[in-house]
Amino acid sequence: MPDKLFHLGFLKVKYKAAIRDKTMKLRKGFLTNWRQMFVVCLLLVLCGRLIKAQEFPILVYHRFDSAMPGLTTVRTSTFELQLEWLEDHHYQILSLRTVTDKLRTMRDTNAPAVAITVDDGHRSIYAEMFPLILKHHIPVTLFIYPSVISNASYALTWEQIRQMKRSGLVDVQSHTLWHPNFRKERARLSDAEYEAFVIKQLTRSKDILSSRLGGQIDSLAWPFGIHNSYLENAAQRAGYKTAFALGGAPARAGGNMLAIPRIPVSDNDTGARFYRLLMDPRRNRREK
Ligand SMILES: [Zn+2]
């Protein structure tokens, strides 16, 4: 009988030990799962922030007109509607330099943000767009090719550009020397001629803008959006830190800083259509 009791007592102790073991294992497992869940949550939050920080629609305009829209002409009233839409929907309009800094450092903004660029230096920039820039107090970057400035009747003058720059809202950067089609020039010229041509287009423009206007000229917009690795390397050697293409998509952190996509805006892009352009521009174009 005492043997039996001893045996039963032993079983009880063994049973308790087994339960304790199981509980410890469960506790351990629970803790491990919590740790895993925490890491997964943290990664999701970080990825979410990263994805948000990666998207900046950079808008590109060309010409403005008080009455007549065109293929690359936006009516002044449409441009103002677009600015008001951005303000009403709490978009920040950042300078292009701020956006490229954020793309480089993967820094976030508290609100959705866009940047505005205008290519080619058409005279309507001064007459039609500039008053609205002042009224709404927003930063804009102009990409111009110096060969036409104070030269062609359709182009801005150096004095108009200086006046816009003095407002502190307008930055001016390079669009090459005379807006060539690099694809056509490549087919026409020998290797050596093409190399000299590319260097001239990139460096002369930079030098002229710098001596005429001062400031840092380290951004380039590819004429017709044409670029490739040869041109990108040449731009980098010429001292450009960023270069902008077309492409119709928002700019994302981690992308090629010498081919940052921009979104061309047309006169049709108002209201919900403008919103879709910022969100998913390629879908918007297909719906046209
Ligand atoms: Zn252009």
From TrEMBL:
The NodB homology domain extends over 112-288
Q: Could you state one GO biological process linked to this protein?
A: carbohydrate metabolic process
User: Could you give a GO molecular-function term held by this entry?
Assistant: hydrolase activity, acting on carbon-nitrogen (but not peptide) bonds
Superkingdom of this entry's organism?
Answer: Bacteria
Report the EC number(s), separated by commas if there are several: 3.-.-.-
Question: Which keywords does this Swiss-Prot/TrEMBL entry list?
Answer: Hydrolase, Signal
Name of the molecule in the record: Polysaccharide deacetylase family protein
